Amino acid sequence: MIVCVCNRLNEDRIRTVIDGGACCSDDVYARCGVRKNCGRCQETIEEMLDEKTALVAAA
Ligand code: FES
User: Fold this and answer.
1) Residue of the nearest CA to atom 4 in ligand 1?
2) How far is 10 from 25, CA to CA, in rounded Å?
């Protein structure tokens, strides 16, 4: 599923950089080699970051 339409970033791509240590949405964009454009995807990316943090905390 495409999460960031402006930069054509799909969920798998974003999860890969989050698993690689991205700590915030700006870091996700940077690690994907793009810049935030409209920002509509930011909330979804932050939710994905929160999910990862919750998984790590539960482990
Ligand atoms: S949808 Fe990601 S910056 Fe616009």
Assistant:
1) 38
2) 14
Q: State whether the beta carbon of 6 lies less than 6 angstroms from ligand 1.
A: yes
Q: What pLDDT sits at residue 59?
A: 86
Give domain limits for the chain: 2-58
pTM assigned to the model:
0.93
Ligand 1 centre to CA of 58 (Å) is 30
Specify the CATH number for 2-58; select among 3.30.70, 3.40.1350, 3.30.980, 1.10.10: 1.10.10
